[in-house]
C-alpha cells in the first residue's frame, strides 16, 4: 500500500476492520489536499485543532507531532483505526485524545478539520455543537472527494459557522473553508423521534442513526418474525441501531438477557435511551464496539442482525460477512443467528458456508428473514 505523504509526516496506514489484500487505502486525495493547505498556513505549534470524522486517523496522525490535535467522531472503528495507525507509525496509541460523538469537547479550537460524512444530519449536529468551541479567527475546513460532496454541506457551513469559500478542485477533491462569525445560538433538531404501533413504542434517534425519521423497511419485515419462547437465553442485537429489534424481542421474551452492540456511539446512545424508556426495570448491556469481537466464544444463545451493506461510501458485503463470522464464534453450539437481508444479496449461500443449517423463516418481495443454526 502507498504511504500518506504530506508536509507533516509520511505514514503507513491501514483501514479498519482489516481484511487480507484490502484493495482500498486508508486515505485519499481529500486528506492530502487538506494537509497541504494547512501546511501553507504556517500555524504555530500551540494551535488547537479538532478533527471530525477522520475515518482511519489519516489527518490526526499526520498532524499530532506539529499541532495540538483532538479527534472526534461517531465511529468506534475509526477510533480503533486511529489508535492502531498511531502505534503502527511509532507514536503512542493515545497520542491523540478521541472524543466520541455523544461526549462534549473541551475548550476552544483555532481550526476544525471536517471529513464530510455520508449522513449530513451528523455534520449538521457537529456544526451546531461547535457553538462555544471556536476561538476568535477560527476556521472550519471541510473536505471530501467531489463526488461525495453535496451542495448542502456548504449550505450547512454557511448557516452555522460563517461565510464559505470553495477551493479549486485538485485530484477530484475540494475544500470548503468557513470563517467563524458570531451568530445567534442555534437549536439542534436532533434527536428525532417516531412512534410504532406494534409494538407500541416511541423511539429516539440521534443524528447519525440509520433511518432516524422512521422504521427502515428491512426492520419492518423482521419485526413480526422475531424469535419467541427463548426462556433465559442470552441474546445480542448486533448492529443494533436505535435498539428496536432487541426491545421488540425483549417484550416477547421477558426472561431473556440482552446485549445491544453498534459501532456508532450515537446508535448506542439511542438504543440505551429507548431501552430505558420501554423497559425501565430491566437490565441491559449496551456497547459501542467492534461488533461481537470482544464477546467470549460460545457466550450467546441468539444473535439478531440487520446487517449493513456499506461502510461510509464503500458498498459491499465485507462488514456483513464479518458480522456473520463474529456471530458464529460467539454462539453456543445449537445457537441461532437471525438476519434480515435484501433477496439479491444472497445471504443464504454465505451463511451456509459458516453454519450447519440455514432456513428461511419468512420472505417479502424484497427481503428474506433467515435463521442460521450453529
Molecular structure report:
The chain folds into two domains: 4-179, Vaccinia Virus protein VP39 (Rossmann fold, 3-Layer(aba) Sandwich); 192-373, Rossmann fold. The protein is built from ten helices and 20 strands. The chain has helices at residues 29-40, 58-63, 76-88, 120-129, 151-160, 217-222, 244-252, 265-278, 318-330, 347-352; strands spanning 4-5, 10-11, 48-52, 68-73, 98-100, 109-115, 134-145, 164-166, 173-179, 192-196, 201-205, 234-238, 257-262, 285-288, 300-305, 310-311, 314-315, 331-342, 357-363, 367-373. Strands 5-4-3-6-7-9-8 form a seven-stranded mixed beta sheet. A seven-stranded mixed beta sheet has the order 14-13-12-15-18-20-19. Strands 1-2 form a two-stranded antiparallel sheet. The radius of gyration is 22 Å and the shape is globular. Residues 310-315 have low confidence and may be disordered.
> Mean pLDDT score, rounded?
94
For CATH, the homologous superfamily of the largest domain is named as Vaccinia Virus protein VP39
- Tell me what the CATH architecture of the largest domain is: 3-Layer(aba) Sandwich
Distance between the termini: 37 Å
Tell me what portion of residues adopts beta-strand conformation. Answer: 25-35%
Q: What name does CATH use for the topology of the largest domain?
A: Rossmann fold
Query: What helical percentage do the residues reach?
Result: 25-40%
Give the helix tally.
Answer: 10
| Helix-strand sequence | EEHEHEHEEHEHEEEEHEHEHEEEEHEHEE
Number of strands: 20
Any idea what the shape is?
Answer: globular
- Work out the count of structural domains: 2
| Name of the CATH class of the largest domain | Alpha Beta
Subcellular location: Cytoplasm
GO molecular function, one term: methyltransferase activity
Function: Specifically methylates the guanine in position 1835 (m2G1835) of 23S rRNA.
Domain Methyltransferase small: 201-371
Amino acid at each position: 500500500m502507498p504511504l500518506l505523504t504530506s508536509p507533516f509526516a509520511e505514514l503507513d496506514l491501514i483501514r479498519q476492520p482489516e481484511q487480507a489484500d484490502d484493495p482500498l487505502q486508508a486515505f485519499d486525495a481529500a486528506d492530502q489536499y487538506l494537509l497541504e493547505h494547512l501546511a501553507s498556513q504556517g500555524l504555530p505549534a500551540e494551535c488547537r485543532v479538532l478533527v471530525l470524522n477522520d475515518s482511519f486517523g489519516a489527518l490526526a496522525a499526520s498532524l499530532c507531532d506539529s499541532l495540538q490535535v483532538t479527534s472526534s467522531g461517531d465511529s468506534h472503528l475509526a477510533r480503533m483505526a486511529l489508535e492502531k495507525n498511531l502505534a503502527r507509525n511509532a507514536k503512542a496509541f493515545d497520542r491523540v485524545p478521541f472524543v466520541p460523538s455523544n461526549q462534549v469537547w473541551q475548550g476552544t479550537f483555532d481550526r476544525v478539520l471536517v471529513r464530510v460524512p455520508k449522513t449530513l444530519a451528523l455534520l449538521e449536529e457537529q456544526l451546531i455543537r461547535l457553538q462555544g468551541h471556536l476561538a476568535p479567527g477560527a476556521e472550519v475546513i471541510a473536505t471530501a472527494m467531489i463526488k461525495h460532496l453535496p451542495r448542502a454541506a456548504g449550505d450547512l457551513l454557511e448557516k452555522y459557522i460563517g461565510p464559505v469559500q470553495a477551493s479549486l478542485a485538485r485530484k477530484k477533491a475540494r475544500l470548503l473553508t468557513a470563517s467563524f462569525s458570531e451568530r445567534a445560538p442555534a437549536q439542534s433538531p436532533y434527536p428525532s423521534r417516531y412512534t410504532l404501533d406494534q409494538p407500541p413504542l416511541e423511539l429516539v434517534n440521534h443524528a447519525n442513526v440509520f433511518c432516524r425519521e422512521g422504521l427502515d423497511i428491512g426492520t419492518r419485515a423482521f419485526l413480526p418474525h422475531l424469535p419467541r419462547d427463548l426462556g433465559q437465553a442470552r441474546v445480542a442485537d448486533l448492529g443494533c441501531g436505535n435498539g428496536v429489534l432487541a426491545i421488540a424481542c425483549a417484550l416477547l421474551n421477558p426472561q431473556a438477557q440482552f446485549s445491544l452492540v453498534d459501532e456508532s456511539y450515537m446508535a448506542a446512545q439511542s438504543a440505551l435511551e429507548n431501552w430505558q424508556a420501554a423497559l425501565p426495570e430491566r437490565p441491559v448491556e449496551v456497547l459501542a464496539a467492534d461488533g461481537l469481537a470482544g464477546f467470549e466464544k460460545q457466550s450467546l444463545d441468539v444473535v439478531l442482525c440487520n446487517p449493513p451493506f456499506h461502510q461510509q461510501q464503500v458498498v459491499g458485503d465485507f462488514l456483513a460477512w464479518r458480522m456473520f463470522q463474529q456471530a458464529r464464534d460467539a454462539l453456543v453450539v445449537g445457537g441461532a443467528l437471525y438476519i434480515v437481508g435484501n433477496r439479491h444479496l444472497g445471504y443464504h449461500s454465505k451463511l451456509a458456508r459458516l453454519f450447519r443449517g440455514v432456513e428461511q423463516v419468512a420472505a417479502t418481495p424484497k427481503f428474506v428473514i433467515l435463521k442460521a443454526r450453529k
